Amino acid sequence: MLLALMRGFFVAGALSSFGASLFTTLILIPVAGEFGAEPSELVSRRLRANLAVSLGVALLAGIAWLGLQTQAMAETQSFAETAAAVPSVLFGTRFGQVLCLQAAALAAAALFAGLSRDRLVAMLAGLAVLLEAGHSHAFAMAHGLSPLLLSQSMHLVAAGAWLGGLLPLLVVVAHAPLDVAHRVLKRFSPIATVSVVILAATALLQGAVLSGGLKGLFGTAYGSVLLLKLALFAALIVLAANNRLRLTPALASRNGDATRRSLALSIGIETAIGLLVVLAAAALSGLEPGMHITSG
Amino acid sequence: MRQILLAVSLALIASTSAFAHAHLESSTPAADATLQTPPAEVAIVLSEEIEPKFSTIEVKDAHGTRIDKGDVHLAPDNAKRLIVSLQPIGPGSYEVDWKVTSVDTHKTHGSFGFKVGA
Question: Measured between CA atoms, how close is B46 to chain A, in angstroms?
Answer without folding.
Answer: 9
